[in-house]
C-alpha cells in the first residue's frame, strides 16, 4: 500500500485537500445558518420544539437519499456536495446553539440592556460569547460527522477522498481495490483528527479565559 | 447627555438628580390587579430612597420602570425634570447606573472590561476609560493593579458586588438604581458593603433608589424609606426616624417589626460617638519610639497605619518585633464612621480588643470605638428618651413606652461585657 500511495501521492494530497476544503466550507456555512436560526428560535420560544424536531429528524435522513433528492435541483458536482454536507453540518450546531443561547443567564441579558446596550449589541457582546463554548462543541461534532458524509458526496462527483472509496468499491477483487478504499478511509480519519485539533486550538483562542472550563 | 456632563463638572455637593413618579401604574397583560397602582412620589436629588416591602409588592417593578426595563401602563416618570420618554431608551439607560444582586458581572469579561462598558458605549477614549477604571477600583477599595485584569470567577462574592457597584458608577450617572444589591453576600460582608456604599455616597451624593426586602438595611441606608404594600400601595414614605417612631398604619407597623426599639440602634451612627484616640504607628517608623509612646499613653496595643493613613492592623505592643514597624498582616475588620451602633456592637464582639477601628472616607483612620463609648451613648439616649416619655406620658400621646424600657437590660449586659 505504501508503494501505491507514493505513486499516487499528488492525487492523494489533492483529494485530501479538496475533502478538507469541502468540509470546512460546509461547516462554516452551517455555523452561520445554525446560529442565525438559533437566534430566531430563542426569540420565539414556540419554534424551539420545531427546531429540535428538525435537527433530530434531519439526521435520520440517509445522506445518499438526500444527495439523490438534490440531483434534479443542483445537478452533478461540487454544488450538490456542498449543499448536502452543509445541511448535515447545520443540524448539530443548531441544537447546541439553541441550548447555548438559552443557557445564558437572563439577569445578565437584563443587566446588559439596563446599562444601555442595544439588542444587537447584547447578542454580539454578551449572548454569543457566553454561548460560544457550547456552540463550539456542536461545531466539533458537526465537523467529525461531515468528514464521513463528504465521502458519500463523491457519488455525485463531488470533490474529495470519497472518489477513491467508490472507485475501490467498483473494482472489488481488482488489484488496487483495497488500496484505494483503505488509503482514502485512513486519509479521512487522519484529516478528521487534524481538523479537530485545529478546532480545539481555535476554541482556546476564541473562548474568554473567564468562561473556559 | 447634558445632565451627565453637568454632573461631571461639579465634583463637590450633590451630583444626583431629582426623580419624580406621577400616578405611575403598571398592569401586566392578562392580569386584572395592577402590579403597581397609581404611585406618586418624589426622591430629592442626592438622597438614598430605600424601597422595602414583602415579595410581590411591586418594588422591583417600580424600580425597573425608572430605567424603562418595564414600561408603565400609565403615569409619568421624570429625572431632573425631564420626562424619561423624551430620550431614546438606550441613551436614557446609559445615564442611569444599574446595580443588581450579586453584581451580575459578565463572566467572559475582565474586571476592567466590565466596568468600562457604559463609558465605551458613550464613546470615551481609551485613556480616559482606563483612568476611570483605576479610580473606581480605588473608590470601592480594590487595588487596581491587582484586580483590573481578573475575571469575575476569580473574585469573592463581596468583591464581585463591589465591581458591580463600580460598574454602576462608571460613567458618573446622576441616578443609580440598585436591586437587592447586597442580597447575595454573607452578613459581615453585607455590613461592610453597606458602610462602603454610604461612604461613597457621602462623597458623590447621587440619587440612589435601592430595592431591598430587609427593613434593617432600609433603615440603615435610607435617607427616606418607602414601605410598599401588596399592589405597590404606599404604606409609608418618610425618613427612617419617623418610620420607626410612628408607623403610618398597621401594615407599616407589622413590617417594621416588634424589635423596633433595638432597630433604633441602627439610627445612631458611629460618627456621633466620641472616638477614643489610642497610640498609632505608621509603617516604617522606629519601633522603639512607638513602644515608648504607647507606654506613655498607657496603651497595651497600637494601631498600625499605612502611608495613606489607612489602618492595617491592631497588634499588642509585645507583638512589635524588629526595629521598624511593618504591616502586621492582620485581617482587620474596620468600622465605617457611617456604620450604625448595631454594626459597631457586632464588630466589637468579634474583636479581641473589645473595640473596633473606625474609618472615614477611603478607609482613612479616625479613631477607636469600644463598648464603653457605645454604652455611654445609649445611656444618654435613654435619658433623653425618658425625659421625652415623661413629657409625652403626661399628654397621653406615647403609644409604645415598653419599647424604650426594653433597651435597659441590653445596656446592662453590655456594661458587664465591656469589663476587659
From TrEMBL, chain A:
It comes from Flexivirga endophytica. Residues 16-199 form the ABC transmembrane type-1 domain. It is found in: Cell membrane; Membrane. The keyword Acyltransferase does not apply. It comes from the Bacteria. GO terms for biological process: glycine betaine transport; transmembrane transport. Belongs to the binding-protein-dependent transport system permease family. One of its GO terms (cellular component) is plasma membrane. Keywords: Membrane, Transmembrane, Transmembrane helix, Transport. The chain crosses the membrane at residues 20-41, 53-71, 77-94, 177-202. This is ABC transporter permease. It is a multi-pass membrane protein. The lineage of its organism: Bacteria, Bacillati, Actinomycetota, Actinomycetes, Micrococcales. The keyword Transmembrane applies.
Automatic annotation (TrEMBL), chain B:
Residues 19-256 form the ABC transporter domain. Signal peptide: none annotated. Its EC number is 7.6.2.9. Keywords: ATP-binding, Nucleotide-binding, Transport. Residues 384-420 are annotated as: Disordered. GO terms for molecular function: ABC-type quaternary ammonium compound transporting activity; ATP binding; ATP hydrolysis activity. The keyword Transport applies. Belongs to the ABC transporter superfamily. This is ABC-type quaternary amine transporter. It comes from Flexivirga endophytica.
